[in-house]
Amino acid sequence: MGLGLGLTQMAVIAVPISLAWLALSIWLGRSHQRQEAPAAPPEQPLAVDNP
């Protein structure tokens, strides 16, 4: 009891799914990079001279 799909039909189904998966991975990667990027450089503590 098979699905009755030939090689062409499987490719017609698989190619759009793989393109959607690729687009999702690129979008998630860019979103992650934006979240991980520092918003501002960390502040440096002021040097204090002790007499």
Summarize the structure.
This protein has 51 residues and is mostly helical. 59% of the residues lie in helices and 0% in strands.
Structural class: mainly alpha
Roughly what is the average pLDDT, rounded to an integer?
84
Strand content: under 5%
Q: Which shape, going by the Cα principal axes?
A: rod-shaped
Q: What helical percentage do the residues reach? A: 55-70%
Quantity of strands, as a count? 0
- What's the number of helices? 1
Radius of gyration: 26 Å
Poorly predicted runs are none
The string of secondary-structure elements, in order, is H
Q: What's the end-to-end separation, in Å?
A: 89 Å
Main sheet properties: none
List the helices and strands and how they pair.
Blueprint: H1 7-36
Please give a structural write-up.
With 51 residues, this protein is mostly helical. The protein has 1 helix and no strands. The model has no long low-confidence stretch (mean pLDDT 84).
List keywords for this structure.
rod-shaped; mainly alpha; 51 residues; 1 helix
